[in-house]
Specification:
By secondary structure, the chain is an alpha+beta fold. It folds into 2 domains: about 40 residues, no CATH class; about 30 residues, no CATH class. It has a two-stranded parallel sheet. β1, α3 and β2 form a beta-alpha-beta unit. The longest helix is centred in the middle third of the chain and has 13 residues.
Length: about 70
């Protein structure tokens, strides 16, 4: 089990994927970090608009991902 307090305290990032192997995830992340692959982001909202983001997702009004920024 992961201690979430340590994740927040140490400002760690958790990356994951529901498909593919760990090696495939690493390959894709290298492409993202190099700029050769750009994730599709519908829009970026401030964290204070998290409720609005959930409403957009529930209505299916987004094209792919929504990002919340602190």
């Amino acid at each position: 089990m992961t201690n979430l307090n340590l994740v927040f305290w140490k400002q760690l990032e958790i990356l994951g994927s529901t498909i593919g192997s760990g090696a495939e995830l690493c390959d894709v992340l290298k492409l993202v970090w190099s700029g050769d692959l750009k994730p599709v982001v519908d829009r970026v909202l401030p964290l204070s608009k998290a409720k609005k983001a959930h409403e957009i997702l529930e209505r299916g009004e987004q094209f792919d991902k929504l990002v919340l920024k602190p």
